[in-house]
Every structure is written in structure tokens, then in C-alpha cells.
Amino acid sequence: MVSDLSLQHGVVGRLCALPQTAEDWRRYQLSPAQIAFYREHGYVSGIRVLTDDQVEMLRDELSGLFQPQHEGHELWYEYHSNESVDSDRVLFHALGAWRIRPGLHDVLWHPAFVVPASQLLAGAVRFWHDQLFCKPAHHGGVVAWHQDYSYWTRTKPMAHLTCWIGLDDSDRHNGCLQYIPRSHLWDLLPITGLAGDMEAIREVLSPDQWAAFQHPVAIELKKGECSFHHPLLVHGSFENRTNRPRRAVVLNAFRDGVCSDSNQPLLAGVPTIPTGEKMQGQFFPLLFDPAAAGTDWQ
């Protein structure tokens, strides 16, 4: 049985090293223009997080996780060999890899993730949960249009952020992430499903909102690059029509101080945090505090 890496709050392997000075941390800052773009459009993309060697390390760890009975399988929050109900449209989706493999654990603390996350959240960063989304060649199911926070209303206030990191080059042909710009300004929409029907969301939209779906923005990224998006930004991705896979690690974070809004477990197998109490502890570690790092961007 593998050790549960959620007990380790810090870098445990070889994926990355942490900066030692405030100046070294600042090297990972977003520019004022990038932050302004995020505020206006609900996302910012094309940010390099991983080197090619780091991508290969995570790909190698990921390859061993596709067999359901792999070592450490009991530690997942969720594990779906195929989130889609259609066996011809496979979408591998799993939550909890940070507990199982050292690289997928350490990427949470990567400075190229936590520093921009701190800027966009305007505070210290805590971990919410991770996800793996993988579409095999010629076989990838879709991720239907949705807002992330519609799945996270068991936490309040809404001070969340998503970082989507590609382990392959992603483009329109192999099912890259797509955004509806400025939809982060909309109200919270009802859940219409995560896998299968790209048209399902239409039934909960106004005519003006549906018109925005005629002009989605395809977020084409090189492997190792990422995109950050707001918890209300509507996003999704179409099928993979190519002979190459489309694999991604998704890191979900929130600003320190977010509380539970549920007396039920927030994630499968995680002890309950009563309504109104701060989310912290083993499963929701503090990833980065700009004040402790001696940075001054707040």
C-alpha cells in the first residue's frame, strides 16, 4: 500500500524546487496586463508552468493510473475510467492524484502555479482538489459546458480559481479547453451535466447568453502551459479527433479563509468540516502565503 501523500504539505519529490528569496518568487508573477485581462474576460492563458522534463515525469506517473486496480487506488476521491456513458466516447476523469504519486502531489506547490494563483485570488492560496482529464486518440469524450462553482456551492464565499495544465499540445482538433469570455459576470447557472451533451446548457440560458456561445474562444496550449479561469466562467471541450492524446492536470484552489457550507463530507472519504468552519487541515493545505514569502504584490 502506498503512503497517503496528503499527510505531506510541501515538496516531497523531484518535480520542482521552491524559491529561496522574495525576488525568486517574483519571477513567477503575472504582469499587470495579464491580471487586467483576467478581470475583464474571466481567464488568462498561455502561462508556462512545466518544463518538458517535468511534463514527462507527470506523464509517466499518469500512465500507471489508467488501470483501476493500480497501487494506491483506494485513495481517490473519485475515479472514472470513462465519465461518459458512451463507450465509444471515452473521458478519463479522476480526483485525488495528489495523494498517490509524488509528482502529481508536488505540482500543487509549483511556484509557477501558486504565485499567479495568489495574485488572482488576492491572498494566500489553499488547495481545494485536483482533477485529471484525459481524452485518448480518436476516442475522446466531451466535457460539457459548465461553471466550476456550480459543483462547489458546498464552500463559501466564492473565492476560487482553476488552473488547467496541459500534458500534451492541445488545440481545436484534439479537444482543447474552450471559454465563453466574460461569462464569469453571469449569475450561477444550474448544473446540466459534465460529460456527453454540449447542447444541454442551452435550456438554462437566456437568448443573449446563448448568443455568446456562437463565439467561444479555443485555448490552444503547448504542453506544460496552463490557463487560469474564474469559478463562474463557462467552459467546456469537444472530442479528440486526432491520433494523439489530450491529457491535462487541473488544480483547483481557493483563497485562505473560505469555509465549509455543508455538514456532509466535502470530498469522498474526507472528514466533515461543519458549516461555517474554515477549510484547512490535512486535505486542504496552505500552498502559498505571499506575506510569508516576503512578496509585496498585494
Strand residue content: 15-25%
How many separate domains?
1
Question: What is the terminal separation in angstroms?
Answer: 43 Å
Order of helices and strands, N to C? HHEHEEHHEEEEEHEEEEEE
Low-pLDDT regions = none
The CATH level-2 architecture is identified as Sandwich
Main beta-sheet strand count, sense and barrel state: 8 strands, antiparallel
Reading off the top of the CATH hierarchy, the class is best stated as Mainly Beta
Oligomer: single chain
**CATH-derived topology:** Jelly Rolls
Instruction: Report Rg.
Output: 18 Å
User: Helix/strand/pairing class, anyone?
Assistant: alpha+beta
* C-alpha geometry: globular
How many individual helices?
A: 6
The proportion of residues forming helix, as a percent range, comes to: 10-25%
Q: What is the average of the pLDDT values?
A: 94
> Got a strand count?
14
CATH superfamily: q2cbj1_9rhob like domain
How would you describe this protein?
- It is built from 6 helices and 14 strands.
- The protein is α+β, with helices and mostly antiparallel strands.
- It has a single domain, classed as q2cbj1_9rhob like domain (Jelly Rolls, Sandwich), CATH 2.60.120.
- Strands 1, 2, 3, 4, 7, 10, 12 and 14 form an 8-stranded antiparallel beta sheet that branches. It has a 4-stranded antiparallel beta sheet with strand order 5-11-8-9, with no helix packed on it. Strands 6-13 form a two-stranded antiparallel ribbon.
